[in-house]
Amino acid sequence: MRPAHQLIPSRLRLRLAQTRDLDRLLQACLPEEARPHCRAGGISNGRLVVVADSAAWATRIRFQERQLLARMHTVSRGATAVPERIRVCVSPLGTVRRKPLPAVHVPATARESLLITAAGVSDPRLARALRQMARRAAG
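Below the sequence we write its predicted structure tokens.
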């Protein structure tokens, strides 16, 4: 039986290694507060694709494109090919690692209010959403 890494085509393994190198370089060049929110997604049409976990972080990266690319060129010292442009996109469903949100205690009266409100609304989708919120708040 062949090892798992041999089952992956060599072109795909090379691209994965390049993306991993670009991500390390990107992380080294990003401001500290942006690091948990951004990842290199690869290169597309000669542009570094940066995946951000929210529109706010994507906007910040777009505004810092020139400075970020200059820093990447300086830090890489030619070891990693740095594209001349950046394309920033927002990741769907949080594929970028995020810190978990702290648990919030919801008083029993708030849960009851959600259930009462759900019973009194005519929109079934809104009622279902309110009941779901009440269930989540209970657990």
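The chain has two domains: 8-94, 108-138.
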